[in-house]
Amino acid sequence: MVNYLELDDEIKKGKFKNSYIMFGFNEQLIKDYIKKITNKLVNNDFISLNYDVFDGSTVDFDSIYNALETVPFMSEKRVVVVYRANFLGDNSKNFNKNGEDILKRLEDYITKIPEQSIFIMYYVFDNPREKITKKIRSFEKKACIVEFSKLKGLGLQKKAKEIFESKGKSIGKAELSFFCSKVDDNIDIIINEAEKLCCYAEDRDITHDDIELLCHPKESNDIFNLVDFISQSKPEKAIEILNEIMFKGEKASVILYMIERQFRIMLNLRIGMEKGKSKEALSKELRLNIYICDKMMNQCKNFSVNKLVKAIDLCLSTEKELKSLSGEAKFKMELLIINIAILR
C-alpha cells in the first residue's frame, strides 16, 4: 500500500501499475490523481475513445471486462475507471443489482488485465475517521492500493513547501512548521491557505504574524464536518465528532460557540444566495476564504433560512441550559445535535 505522495513520485517518473484501488475521504483529490494518470497515458485528441468511466453502484463485470480488453486507439494506454465502488465497503453487499458477485469476479480477473489497459476503481469514506476496509485489503497482492489519507509530519511539510514554491514563494522553516500546525492536513485547504498567504504577502516574505492572522485553526474543520453531518440528517456521525473533540479536552461551551458561529455564517450566506450574490462577493463580504465559502454555500443548500434561524435559537437555548442548569454537558450537546438534525 502506498500514499498519494508516493503515487505522485511514480507518476512523475512515468512508472505505472496495471491496476489501482484508491480510497479515502477526499474524492476531489482522488479524481485529481486519476486525471494525472490519464493525462500521462492517453492522447488527449482521442480521450473519448480510450477512457471509460463507470458508476460503481450500477456497473456489471462484463462492462468492465469489455472496456479493459479493448485495444487502445492511437494512444499508449486505455484507462478504465469505476467511481464510488461502494461494494468495497465492509458494510456493503458484494452483489450488483443483477445479483452478480462483482467483487469476486474482479478479484479473479484483476491480475489478468492486459498490459494495454490501466484499471482504476475508488471508494470514498463517509467521514475522515473511517479506516481501510477488509475488502480493499483483499486486493493488496493483486493491485496497487493507494491511500488518500491526511498528511502528517515531515510529509505534510514537504508537500506544503512544494505548494509554496509552485506559486513562486519561499517560506522559512519556522514559518513552514507553524503553517502546518495551524492548517488542517487536507491538500485542498493547504493549497487555498497558501494561495491566500502568497497574495497577502505579495513581494515580501511570509511571516509568523501573517499565518496567525489568515489561517483558520484545525478545530474549524471538525466543526464544519459536524455541521455537515447534521445537514445530511446523520446525527450519529455528528455525535462521533463531538465526542472526539470533547475527548481532546475542549469544553462544551467552546464547541457550542463554534457551532452557533457556523450557523450564523451559514444564515448570512443563505440570505446572500437568495439575493443572487456570487461566491466571490459573499467571500469578500463575510471575510471567508474562497474555498471555505464555496464549501459552506454547498452546505447551505440543505438549510432554509427558517431552519437556520431555528438552529441558532436551539444553540442559544442550550447555552442557557449549560450556564444555569445542572446535568451532563455532553448529553445536552448530543441532544442539541439531534434536535437540529430533525428540524423541518
Automatic annotation (TrEMBL):
Residue ranges annotated for the DNA polymerase III delta subunit-like C-terminal domain, each copy included: 221-339
Residue ranges occupied by any DNA polymerase III delta N-terminal domain in the UniProt entry: 20-148
EC number in record: 2.7.7.7
Pfam families: DNA_pol3_delta, DNA_pol3_delta_C
Key words of the record: DNA replication, DNA-directed DNA polymerase, Nucleotidyltransferase, Transferase
Superkingdom to which the source organism belongs: Bacteria
Catalytic activity: DNA(n) + a 2'-deoxyribonucleoside 5'-triphosphate = DNA(n+1) + diphosphate
An example Gene Ontology molecular-function term: DNA-directed DNA polymerase activity
KW Transferase (keyword) present: yes
SUPFAM superfamilies the UniProt entry points to: P-loop containing nucleoside triphosphate hydrolases (SSF52540), post-AAA+ oligomerization domain-like (SSF48019)
Family in the record: Belongs to the DNA polymerase HolA subunit family.
Protein name, entry field: DNA polymerase III subunit delta
